[in-house]
Write a structure and sequence with these properties.
Blueprint lengths: L1 H17 L3 H21 L9 E9 L8 E14 L10 E13 L2 E9 L6 E9 L5 E8 L5 E8 L2 E3 L9 H19 L19 H23 L6 E9 L8 E12 L5 E13 L2 E9 L8 E10 L2 E9 L5 E6 L11 H15 L1
Antiparallel strand pairs: 1-2, 1-9, 2-3, 3-4, 4-5, 5-6, 6-7, 7-8, 9-10, 10-11, 11-12, 12-13, 13-14, 14-15
Helix pairs in contact: 3-5
Length: 363
């Protein structure tokens, strides 16, 4: 009887939601928007740990007389942790409720916002304010229902009401896809279980002498570090992505800050694409901190990890680990601090996980 009553209530709620008028849906979205903006303003200032993800991406244009950023994108995700059981060590799911995007292209500064349902996570609202090459300001607002249908849209050109065909910058479908892409990227970063580190490959070892492999890897590492130093200089040619995550998985865990940096180069032949060559990760919490590096094989067409470095600090102790790989993924050399009781498994799969995040971001 109780089950029948619950099902009847669920059906009644569903019918009530379905019966909402467009005006009621828009009113609800505006209320959620006001609440989200209020939370964003108080983030990290209300005595609680911040729950944010910050992504900075700089892409340079083709070399010319001067190097200026072709695209400089600054994306901020805001989220809550919902559910979980701290007593059992189970953390709640991260649900993103708001995203802001500032991006500069060809000297013009533009802005976007995406509002999500704070419980279910689907897109509710998308706002864009952009400037055309001719200096015209364009504004768009799109309101969505739970199924992704656009229930209302508003447009402005030069602060005057306009129609949807007054510009070609975007439409409700393109903004819906952008909002969903942000949601996929967020889930990949916060709600995907990291793959278990794979065992070092014991088959198909390289026929190249070990001394030459080590020499080539160390030379590739030194070259990558030189490129990174040049890339990070103010005013230098930048091709990098930086992701900073501030999270506290539950009240029983301390806040953690994770910083990923990805460096890549622009390849033009046979077709244009970005090729990674170095990734680093730094994690800090009250329990300690760790730093990791992943060096990719510089050979054309290869995306293999050839070197992993791991440095950790915990309770005043320092640990270092180095792993060297041949072209077949075989770990042919490792160097581990004496303090490490047993050699940990080299985490090449983790590198693949981080690559998948940057792949999703750059699509």
């Amino acid at each position: 009887m109780k089950r029948v009553f619950i099902i009847a209530c669920m059906i009644a709620v569903g019918m009530a939601l379905h019966a909402q008028t467009k005006a009621e849906q828009i009113k609800h979205i505006r209320q959620v928007y006001a609440q989200a903006k209020q939370k964003v303003d108080k983030m990290g200032q209300d005595g609680k740990a911040a729950h944010t993800v910050h992504i900075r991406q700089i892409e340079m244009g083709e070399p010319g007389g001067e190097y200026t950023p072709e695209i400089d994108t600054d994306t901020q995700f805001y989220f809550d942790r919902i559910g979980g059981d701290s007593e059992q060590g189970i953390t709640g799911k991260a649900v993103c409720y708001f995203v802001s995007v500032n991006w500069m292209a060809d000297g013009h500064t533009n802005y976007r916002e995406y509002l999500y349902d704070p419980v279910k996570g689907h897109l509710l609202f998308a706002f864009m304010e952009a400037e055309t090459h001719a200096g015209f300001k364009v504004e768009t607002r799109y309101y969505y229902d739970a199924q992704g249908n656009c229930i209302e849209q508003k447009h402005k050109v030069q602060d005057k009401e306009a129609t949807a065909d007054s510009h070609s910058w975007n439409d409700w479908k393109s903004e819906l896809e952008s909002g969903r892409k942000n949601a996929r990227l967020f889930d990949l970063m916060l709600n995907t279980e990291r793959p278990y580190p794979e065992l070092a490959s014991a088959h198909y070892p390289s026929s190249t002498p070990k001394a030459k492999l080590l020499k080539d890897i160390r030379a590739a590492y030194a070259k990558a570090k030189q490129r990174i130093e040049q890339n990070d200089k103010d005013g230098g040619v930048k091709n990098d992505i930086e992701i900073t995550i501030h999270d506290q998985q539950s009240e029983d865990f301390p806040p953690v800050t994770t910083l990923w940096k990805c460096y890549y180069e622009q390849i033009q032949q046979p077709s244009p694409y970005q090729r990674y060559y170095f990734i680093s990760e730094k994690t800090e919490s009250m329990y300690g901190e760790s730093y990791e590096e992943y060096l990719l094989d510089p050979k054309p067409g290869s995306e293999n990890v050839i070197f992993i470095y791991n440095q950790g600090y915990a309770e005043g102790e320092e640990m270092e680990m180095r792993y060297y790989y041949d072209e077949n993924g075989h770990c042919f050399e490792s160097k581990v601090s004496e303090i490490v009781e047993s050699e940990p498994v080299p985490a090449r799969n983790k590198a693949g996980y981080i690559f998948s995040i940057f792949d999703e971001l750059m699509q």
